[in-house]
């Protein structure tokens, strides 16, 4: 069974759902479904999983997240140094994957916040919305229209054009 | 079969009553036998009339049911099951053993000063086994690509240098290429050109 993610990384704020007063004497059907689910599906599955866990060896193997060393960037490579290009390209692709996952996580947090808050989402989730807007804008600036075949060199050229336009804008302002 | 025999028995009773009544009415009247007796005579009779049958055990008469052949269908299904289970059952047992008794790996922090082997980055034991014994480590792949790039880069550089040298030698004419051996000028016979009137 997959482990839960690290709850300390993002502490979910306590819910502020008000306690509802019952106005009908009809029992909540959700309770029935929850007990049915826990008796019919949850308990047997947990029991079987417990049996299997007991059969597995105590000293289990471990797997790790691979940590890659940082190598010189594409902007620090000499021209014609194809080995440096290759390593910088590999590092850029890994960084792009990491950035994609970061955007995913921030999106999921916003979705979780909306689900929690319900009708109050526009006020209570403002921070998450702001964070998502910033993160997606940053991602779009960096990796935006490079396309599927984008590589580190295209990204560097895009950054160069961005800096040139910023400089032009500053010079235009003066 | 029992239900069929009951239906047949009911049909037979009705037929026997009809046949029996037409035959017996002439002699004794309908107050004759009420039970079903054995058929006598060679008069045509309706099919399904019960006769005392052996080996029945209340299953009724043994019937030869005429239907289309299922020989080919059942042979196909039987062969299908055989060949699927021939490798399917060992594979299923193997997978069950691996998933139940060996189990997946747990995520852990890399301990200080320890460099994990390249197969220790995967979770499932079969993936780990394949990465360990069948595939090359990704570092080796990386180095292979870099070696290929290095060789090709050197080749490119040498070819560029050769082109440049050739261009310069052609242009300057002072190199070993692009010049052709000419005979020594002392060997040239200038007697034909020595006087202006020849």
Describe the protein.
The complex is a heterodimer of chains A (174) and B (198). Chain A is built from 5 helices and 1 strand; from the N terminus they run αβαααα. Chain A has helices at 29-55, 82-117, 121-124, 126-143, 152-173, and one strand spanning 62-63. In chain A, helix 2 runs antiparallel to helix 4 (126-143). The mean pLDDT of chain A is 89. Chain A starts with 28 loop residues before the first helix and ends with a helix. Chain B is mainly alpha-helical. The model of chain B is unreliable at 24-35 (pLDDT under 50). The interface between A and B is medium-sized, with 19 and 25 residues.
- Gyration radius of chain B (Cα, Å) is 53 Å
Task: Spell the H/E element sequence of chain B.
Answer: HHEHH
Unreliable residue runs of chain A:
none
Biggest sheet features of chain B: none
Distance N terminus to C terminus of chain B?
A: 137 Å
Mean pLDDT of chain B: 83
Largest interface: A-B, 19 and 25 residues
Shape summary of chain A? flat
Biggest sheet statistics of chain A: none
Q: Mean pLDDT of chain A, as a whole number?
A: 89
Fraction in helix of chain A: 55-70%
Into which percentage range does the β-strand content of chain A fall? under 5%
The ordered string of helix (H) and strand (E) elements of chain A is: HEHHHH
Write the layout of secondary structure elements.
The complex is a heterodimer of chains A (174) and B (198).
Chain A: H1 29-55, E1 62-63, H2 82-117, H3 121-124, H4 126-143, H5 152-173
Chain B: H1 2-24, H2 71-102, E1 106-107, H3 125-133, H4 138-172
């Amino acid at each position: 069974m997959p482990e839960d993610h690290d709850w300390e990384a993002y502490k979910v704020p306590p819910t502020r759902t008000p306690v509802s007063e019952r106005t009908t004497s009809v029992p909540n059907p959700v309770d029935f479904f929850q007990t049915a689910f826990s008796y019919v599906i949850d308990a047997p599955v947990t029991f079987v999983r417990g049996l299997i866990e007991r059969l597995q060896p105590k000293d289990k193997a471990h797997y790790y997240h691979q940590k890659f060393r940082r190598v010189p960037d594409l902007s620090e490579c000499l021209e014609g140094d194809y080995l440096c290009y290759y390593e910088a390209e590999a590092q850029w692709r890994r960084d792009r994957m990491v950035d994609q996952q970061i955007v995913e996580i921030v999106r999921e947090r916003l979705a979780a916040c909306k689900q929690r808050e319900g009708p109050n989402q526009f006020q209570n989730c403002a921070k998450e919305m702001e964070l998502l807007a910033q993160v997606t804008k940053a991602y779009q600036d960096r990796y935006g229209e490079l396309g599927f075949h984008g590589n580190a060199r295209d990204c560097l050229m895009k950054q160069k054009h961005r800096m040139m336009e910023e400089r032009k804008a500053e010079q235009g302002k003066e | 079969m029992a239900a069929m025999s009951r239906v047949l028995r009911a049909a037979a009773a009705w037929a026997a009553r009809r046949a029996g009544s037409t035959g017996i009415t002439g002699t004794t009247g309908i107050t004759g036998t009420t039970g079903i007796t054995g058929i006598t005579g060679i008069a045509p009779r309706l099919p399904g009339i019960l006769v005392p049958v052996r080996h029945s055990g209340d299953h009724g008469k043994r019937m030869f049911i005429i239907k289309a052949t299922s020989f080919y269908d059942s042979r196909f299904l039987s062969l299908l099951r055989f060949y699927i289970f021939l490798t399917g059952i060992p594979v299923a047992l193997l997978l069950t053993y691996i998933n139940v008794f060996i189990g997946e790996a747990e995520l852990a922090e890399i301990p200080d000063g320890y460099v994990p082997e390249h197969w220790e980055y995967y979770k499932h034991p079969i993936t780990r086994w394949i990465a360990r014994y069948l595939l090359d480590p990704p570092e080796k792949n990386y180095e292979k690509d870099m070696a290929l790039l290095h060789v090709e880069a050197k080749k490119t550089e040498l070819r560029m240098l050769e082109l440049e040298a050739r261009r310069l030698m052609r242009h300057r004419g002072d190199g070993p290429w692009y010049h052709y051996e000419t005979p020594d000028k002392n060997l040239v016979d200038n007697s034909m050109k020595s006087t202006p009137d020849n």
